[in-house]
Amino acid sequence: MADLIVKAAVKEALADKNVASDFYDALDEKVDALLEDAGRRAEENGRKTVQPRDL
């Protein structure tokens, strides 16, 4: 699985928080699942273009 998130962006978004090193892997897995579901929904609706409504 490719890294889908940018660690620096996550750190910036959570500026005043500490981030555990394994958090990034868990977040990457969640994002991957979200993208797979969105792609499946688009395909089920006869589209190749994933749209916000697929989330």
Give the topology, please.
Layout: H1 7-13, H2 23-44
Explain what this protein looks like in three dimensions.
- The protein starts with 6 loop residues before the first helix and ends in an 11-residue tail after the last helix.
- It has one domain (7-54).
- The chain has helices at residues 7-13, 23-44.
- The chain is built from 2 helices and no strands.
- With 55 residues, it is mainly alpha-helical.
- Helix content is 53%, strand content 0%.
- The model has no long low-confidence stretch (mean pLDDT 94).
Shape: elongated
Determine the structural class based on helices, strands and strand pairing.
mainly alpha
Overall mean pLDDT: 94
Q: Helical segment tally?
A: 2
Distance from N terminus to C terminus (CA atoms, Å) equals: 20 Å
Strand content: under 5%
Task: Point out poorly predicted stretches.
Answer: none
**Into which percent range does the helicity of residues fall?**
40-55%
Number of separate domains: 1
Largest sheet: none
- Computed over alpha carbons, the radius of gyration is 14 Å
Q: Which short descriptors sum up this protein?
A:
single chain; 55 residues; mainly alpha
How would you summarize what this structure contains?
This protein has 55 residues and is mainly alpha-helical.
